[in-house]
């Protein structure tokens, strides 16, 4: 079931600037027993991302009405919540007074193998690099071509995720996840002020670390440093936390930290 | 009038990867008295851009049928021709055997002031930079957020175009046009192997220069060099060629070169 500006529809106008220019932002989250997980955080991120692009974000009440509507039919699903700059005639210039387009789309929750969660995943290093663009860094905008190209680098179903670097060679994230690496007692995650998407679960890990007395740092991380990490894990709103137990030729034993964060992330926010 | 996979429709599926991820490419061109201007070149560029993203490009016959269909109703219009990777379930991974989506959309031809063509335009330097991404450079993919942000930097209708640099400070293009600068007897245009869109009219200018004995060079150009040019002009498939007669505080007198190239570009290909 899909809602476009609150009305049931499976299509979008060909004039929509999201389709024409990637001029919009989105969120992906779980609906569990009718409740959208971490909704206030997702909405805050959606609003912040809209602000970065000067798109007027519809109010949370409108989305919450949509979410209740979807929940009556699909209490357990994946939601994609999208806001675009709206429909307009051809051209990059934005006409005045164009209302944004609001889309809530429900899909089947993905079925990931239980081993990924319980015993960790194999990952690879992607050749596709993330371009450095501070004006868009951190924002989950509709342009995900770099992620698409990176994900096309492998077909092996035994590889669950690819790790991406920026064009300077610094580690940034997975193709669909944020990345954390533990060094001794310290946790670190790549700085995302030049590229990448600063996801909701990444913010939660940083906060949870603080509240559990774990030092967490945002910084620059190269591949060599990553390989030296004591534990690596990936987070997003669908997978929770997966430990990386194999990356290229290096392997790691099952770690304690990922399991702890997974449990904390899974709890209600 | 719009055609989606050859069928009249003004909407696209919410599952289309063009809408979801910017996973597609497009062309903008003029239909004049029922004839698509420079169609073989536009199709070749569409096919090349598809190949860069490993999208299967529909055959030219399918598009030509669409174009004839549109021409019966709108012999003079702007066409936007789009190919996306097709419709699929959520996720960056591309399922096998997804057919591409082919869209031909007709819109009103833009009405630009005659002075732009006859006496040149005022342009500005944009603050928004183009990210360096060799994997996507040259391709007219659906992600045009950088262009949208650059175009939002001004409202003054007296400014016809903005000039964009890459994140290293090199001049790349206009927000919607390719750029040429003349230095004495030599014409040059920025190298687009790291960012920017290598448009059809840019290729034509390079070829036309050759056939008219004008030396044309593709290279690196910074803002200071650009300001020292004897003549600057902008090209795309809708405007033809516009001379830049004012850029920030600097002005240029009407030049001979732009007028010549405009005439050559306007001719049938």
What is this entry, summarized?
Two copies of one chain form a homodimer. The first copy, chain A, has helices at 17-21, 39-52, 60-73, 114-119, 145-151, 200-211, 223-227, 256-266; strands at 2-4, 7-8, 11-13, 24-32, 35-36, 77-84, 101-107, 121-125, 159-165, 171-174, 178-183, 186-190, 215-219, 231-236, 240-247, 250-251. The first copy, chain A, is an alpha+beta fold and 269 residues long.
Provide tags for this entry.
homodimer; 269 residues; alpha+beta; D-amino Acid Aminotransferase, Chain A, domain 1; D-amino Acid Aminotransferase, Chain A, domain 2; 2 domains; nine-stranded mixed sheet; six-stranded antiparallel sheet; 16 strands
Q: Into which percent range does the helicity of residues of chain A fall?
A: 25-40%
Q: How many domains comprise the coordinates of chain A?
A: 2
CATH architecture of the largest domain in chain A: Alpha-Beta Barrel
Largest sheet of chain A, in brief, is:
9 strands, mixed
- Output the CATH topology of the largest domain in chain A: D-amino Acid Aminotransferase, Chain A, domain 2
Assembly form of the protein: homodimer
List low-pLDDT spans of chain A: none
CATH C-level category of the largest domain in chain A: Alpha Beta
Structural class of chain A: alpha+beta
How many individual helices of chain A?
8
Spatial gap, N to C terminus of chain A: 26 Å
Residue fraction in strands of chain A: 25-35%
SSE pattern of chain A: EEEHEEHHEEHEHEEEEHEHEEEH
DSSP E strands of chain A, number: 16
Greatest interface by residues involved: A-B, 57 and 57 residues
Query: What's the average pLDDT of chain A?
Result: 96
Rg of chain A, Å, rounded: 19 Å
What would CATH call the homologous superfamily of the largest domain in chain A? D-amino Acid Aminotransferase, subunit A, domain 2
Shape of chain A: globular
């Amino acid at each position: 079931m899909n809602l476009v500006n609150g009305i049931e529809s499976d299509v979008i106008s060909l004039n929509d600037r999201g389709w024409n220019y990637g001029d919009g932002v989105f969120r992906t989250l779980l609906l569990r027993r009718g409740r959208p997980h971490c909704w206030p955080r997702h909405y805050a991120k959606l609003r912040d991302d809209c602000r970065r692009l000067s798109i007027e974000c519809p109010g949370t009440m409108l989305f919450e009405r949509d979410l209740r509507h979807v929940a009556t039919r699909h209490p357990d699903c994946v939601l994609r919540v999208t806001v675009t700059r709206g429909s307009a005639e051809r051209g990059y210039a934005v006409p005045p007074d164009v209302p944004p387009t609001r889309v809530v789309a429900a899909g089947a929750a993905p079925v990931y193998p239980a081993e990924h969660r319980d015993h960790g995943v194999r990952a690879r290093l992607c050749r596709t690099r993330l371009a450095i663009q501070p004006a868009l860094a951190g924002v989950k905008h509709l342009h995900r071509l770099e992620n698409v190209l990176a994900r096309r680098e492998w077909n092996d179903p035994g590889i669950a995720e690819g790790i991406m670097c920026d064009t300077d060679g610094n580690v940034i994230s997975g193709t669909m996840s944020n990345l954390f690496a533990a060094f001794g007692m310290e946790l670190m995650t790549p700085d995302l002020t030049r590229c990448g998407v600063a996801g909701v679960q990444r913010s939660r890990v940083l906060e949870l670390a603080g509240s559990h007395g774990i030092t967490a740092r945002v910084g620059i991380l190269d591949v060599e440093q990553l390989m030296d990490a004591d534990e690596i894990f990936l987070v997003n709103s669908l997978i929770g936390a997966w430990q990386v137990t194999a990356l290229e030729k290096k392997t790691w034993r099952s770690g304690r930290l990922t399991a702890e964060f997974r449990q904390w992330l899974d709890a209600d926010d």
